[in-house]
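Whether sequence alone determines local backbone shape is best considered at the level of individual chains. The sequence in question and its structure tokens are set out directly beneath this paragraph.

***
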Amino acid sequence: MKLNTDNLTDLCNLAIEAARKAGAHISKTRPTDIRQDKEGDSLASQVLTEVDGQCQEMILETLEPTFAEYDLALLTEESPDDGSRLVKDFFWCIDPIDGTLPYIEGTSGYAVSIALISQEGVPYIGVVYDPIEHILYHAIRGQGAFRNEKPWTLGHVEGRLFMNTDRSVAEQPEYPALVAGLENFGYGKLETTTHGGGVMNAIWALENAPACYVRMPKEKVGGGTFWDFGATACIYRELGAHVSDIHGDPLDLNHADSIYMNRKGILYATDAELARKILALKEKLI
């Protein structure tokens, strides 16, 4: 089913409602029944909590009527991939708590993430809710990006560059050379953080421009999945910021062979010039 502007607005409003509900639950709940029973290359990709499941139920309760009304498929971190995303025109892509490790640890870096992605792998709706700061970020393809439901434009801090990545990336052999390269870009002091989940890493970059979020490619399965990048990719595109794989190619958020992005890597940058410099640096690293 093809979706028009009104359809996308209605669906986005429901996603916002669902994300706020789940975020409110996360805000007042501490993790229990912590389990390490998912596939992945790191503890962050394997661990889940009872609260993840509770939040998914809340989100799906709100979005349930849309599956029949708009003929939508579903891909979510807490349920198996049934392949319907490859058949339907659009699918909801949901991570009830992205950044489970910081959530367990009681630190910042976790969020609710909901995206609506086309069969071609293009995000049309992106909704992110930060339950610590109580900030809502959302975007609709062609309609702009919003922070707490007000039009969002990026700021710019002189004299420093901000870089986010994930704990596993900081352990890769290319990481020291990546940091050294960024320090030589001429922006001034380089500030880095590695403790957040993928969704908040991308959002933190937008909040601290000029900034980037980088994940280098690797052979081992992992490296994030569609639900880690769908919502934020939509927000970046609507802000005119850069999002691609580490080779500069558009993200394919619905390829058939795997939901993992490890072979392609990830590059988010708050402006095109910064992205150009990182892509050139990448050629020296891999």
Observations:
- The chain has a mean pLDDT of 91.
- The chain has two domains: 5-151, 160-285.
